[in-house]
């Protein structure tokens, strides 16, 4: 059973990084549904696909994050709509939907990223 009150763990991925966004519902929520124009309240964990190294986590800061989907990377803009409050979703985001190709100026450019996102609220 998945505990949505604790930081998720991500198993080290096997095989090649995907070229398209992969969306997996770990837990399907039963609350309000996130839409493309929504503002979301989430807890999340992000790791690099290639190394499994964690690069960011709202869990480590001890508080969720609230922001409009339209201000996030394309992988989140495409991967969160349809998710319901109370759910946990895993997104495997290729570089073109994250921070762009290597050399784009962001420290994570060129990287395929894995996020586990808990949807706590939508508005």
Structure description:
A hairpin with a 5-residue loop joins β2 (39-48) and β3 (54-57). The chain has two helices and six strands. The termini are far apart. With 123 residues, it is mainly beta. Helix content is 8%, strand content 33%. Strands 1, 2, 3, 4, 5 and 6 form a six-stranded antiparallel sheet that branches. The chain has one domain: Chitinase A, domain 3 (Roll), CATH 3.10.50.40. Belongs to the FKBP-type PPIase family. It comes from Cryobacterium lyxosi. Residues 37-123 form the PPIase FKBP-type domain. InterPro entries: PPIase_dom_sf (IPR046357), PPIase_FKBP_dom (IPR001179). This is Peptidyl-prolyl cis-trans isomerase.
Q: Cα distance, first to last residue?
A: 28 Å
Q: Which fold name is given in CATH as the topology?
A: Chitinase A, domain 3
Helix/strand class:
mainly beta
The global form is globular
Number of helical regions: 2
Mean pLDDT: 93
How many domains would you count in the coordinates?
1
The SSE order reads EEEHEHEE
CATH level 1 class label: Alpha Beta
- Total number of strands: 6
CATH architecture: Roll
Helicity, as a percent range = under 10%
Low-pLDDT runs of 5+ residues are: none
**Largest sheet composition:** 6 strands, antiparallel
What proportion strand? 25-35%
Q: Any idea what the radius of gyration is?
A: 14 Å
Catalytic activity: [protein]-peptidylproline (omega=180) = [protein]-peptidylproline (omega=0)
InterPro entries: PPIase_dom_sf (IPR046357), PPIase_FKBP_dom (IPR001179)
Protein name: Peptidyl-prolyl cis-trans isomerase
Pfam families: FKBP_C
């Amino acid at each position: 059973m998945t505990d949505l009150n604790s930081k998720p763990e991500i198993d080290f991925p096997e095989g090649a990084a995907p070229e398209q966004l992969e969306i997996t519902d770990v837990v399907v929520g039963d609350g309000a549904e996130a839409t493309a124009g929504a503002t979301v309240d989430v807890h999340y964990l992000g790791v690099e696909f290639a190394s499994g190294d964690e690069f960011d986590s709202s869990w480590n800061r001890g508080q969720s994050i609230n922001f409009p989907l339209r201000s996030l990377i394309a992988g989140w803009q495409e991967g969160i709509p349809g998710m319901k409050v109370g759910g946990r979703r895993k997104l495997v985001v290729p570089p073109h939907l994250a921070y762009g190709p290597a050399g784009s100026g962001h420290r994570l450019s060129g990287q395929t990223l894995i996020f586990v996102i808990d949807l706590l609220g939508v508005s």
